[in-house]
Description:
Layout: E1 5-9, E2 12-16, H1 27-36, E3 45-49, H2 55-62, E4 66-71, H3 74-86, E5 93-97, E6 112-117, H4 141-150, E7 154-165, H5 170-179, E8 182-191, E9 196-204
Parallel strand pairs: 3-4, 3-6, 4-5, 6-7
Antiparallel strand pairs: 1-2, 7-9, 8-9
Helix pairs in contact: 1-2
Amino acid sequence: MGKIVWEKLKGFTFIVRPTVFNPVDFISSKVFISYINTLDLNSKHILDMGSGSGVVSIIAASRGAQCIAADINPVAIRCITENALQNKFSGQITAIESDLFESLRNTYPAKFDIIFFNPPYYKGSPHNNFERAFKGGPNLEVIDRFLEDAKNFLAPSGRLCLLVSSDMDLDDLYNRVRSAGYSYKIIHTNKKPFETFYIIDAVIQ
């Protein structure tokens, strides 16, 4: 976490600066981008929430998407901009520093076809920007805020695409999704030795 590293994923090169979530170190990122890499996103407008190094945006852009990459960590915004440039996607990716949707309210309402989010699914209060990638508040308030606000940023046929884990209380998550006014389905399952990842598709009811 204390030094700049260079990583390679799916044929692309990424700079990862200190305090930024490294997509190579965590299986969740690889599961998510492997799924995204199968999608036809030509001309789709994508929001990559909690973008980190920008790996989801890079893969989505390579599949034809126009992407807004949002992250609360200003160092992540620098990484996203650098990675978009070096992978030749600057014309398709815009990085915005934002606490969830706060900085997007006046510019991007009701625009996105898909909002991708690998939410922080461990309970607890983050003490720094790096921990924000994992800890979503004492009662996972970040997930609740995201679900409530996302409804204002989806295009009429838009959807959420969430990566979640067996490490969390999935019944609780599904209740939160339903309570926020979405219907959902599990569209992908990836079982690892000690953890299973699920990709959830959710649409406004």
